[in-house]
Amino acid sequence: MAAAETTESTAREFLTDIGPKPGVKYPVDIRYCGECSMPTEYCEYYPGYERCKKWLEDNLPKEFEKLMSGKGGGDIEEEKDGEDKKKRQTRGGKGAVKAKKKLEPEGIKLATSTRGKKKKITIVTGLASYEIDLKAASKFFSNKFSCGSSISGDDEIVIQGDVKDDLFDILPEKWSIIDEESIEDLGELKK
Amino acid sequence: MFKKFEDKEMVSNVNNAKSSVQRGIRHAVLEQFPHIDDYIEQILPKKDNLKIVKCHEHIEILANSNGEAVFFRQRDGPYYPALKLIHKYPFILPHMQVDKGAIRFVLSGANIMCPGLTSPGAKMTKVDKDQIVAIMAEGKQHALAIGVTKMSTDEIISSNKGIGVDNIHYLNDGLWNMKPVK
Ligand SMILES: [Zn+2]
Ligand SMILES: [Zn+2]
Fold it and tell me: Where is this region: Disordered (chain A) (predicted)?
């Protein structure tokens, strides 16, 4: 983000900017994503990125276009330094990241609901986005909780009983690819 | 600091800062971050009510009249600017740019390891140990975390292992998601 200086010994570049930049108006105007709340350039790291994209498309169509065209989500151009811009472009931009996105996990969502009169169930979605085999997962749940479990959709498993709290611990334990932070509690779904 | 922070549970009380206290805070913040001199009136307007939010674990958050966190500290430690403030005034802190590969780790709250600061995609400001820094990222324009260096920049380069910067506050942590303070 800055003019860089080169030292003879290591040829390593350091950031040297200090203080407000001339010609930049502060406060910097920044747009946050309505879905993940982060600066839009970080949406791609959000487990619910697909929902971010939807939000961007609806609310910041220009931003969305820029992100999708692989030019990066810069909503401001803080530096006017031509040299710096050139450097950023030669870093390969976002092309590589973009290609990877399709394989990215979308986070796990847990919800409870009721079936019949008072029977609670737990709904788990998102496992398939981690390339976890749903059949094996369903079997694992049914053993773990000694209860019924079945695949109920493309990427959805229904477990009999309210086991949501346990799943926050069990999912990351069983599948290390799942981070506890990326498990979302949707609460109780109304029918 | 805010990985497990839930404002509902963590906030113990909110007070309007007395004008003498507010003056003291302005003074302390200016001393720590001299570059905000020209902008202090925008950041902490004299006539505005500054709120002091006391939380568990001796965390104290300063919120402006909109209820938005601007600075925070733990015990009598230094003030840290909140990320949203750094987004508006990025020059408040020296920047440490991590490489692209480190982004997802930083966003999960992990501390910043030296290799993520020394690889070709990374760029550092020359700073000492215990310096509060803004964590930037390769190819991105806005800060993704606020941290404090565990080693000087020179040591980060020479040792190139272990934690280089402690991750104090990051996008989507408890402070980021704190509701506006009433
Ligand atoms: Zn988003
Ligand atoms: Zn003084």
Answer: 67-100
Instruction: State pLDDT tens for residues B117-134.
Output: 999 999 999 999 999 999
B30 C-alpha vs ligand 2 centroid, how far in Å?
8
Query: Mind listing the pLDDT tens digit for each residue in B86-114?
Result: 999 999 999 999 999 999 999 999 999 99
All residues of chain B having their beta carbon less than 8 Å from the beta carbon of residue A3 are none
How far CA A144 is from CA of A122, A165, A170, in Å, comes to 14, 14, 9
DSSP state letters, A103-148: GS---EEEEEEEETTTEEEEEEE-GGGGT--HHHHHHHHHHHHTS-
ipTM of the complex: 0.93
- In chain A, where the domains are located: 24-87, 108-189
How is domain A108-189 classified at the architecture level of CATH? 2-Layer Sandwich (3.30)
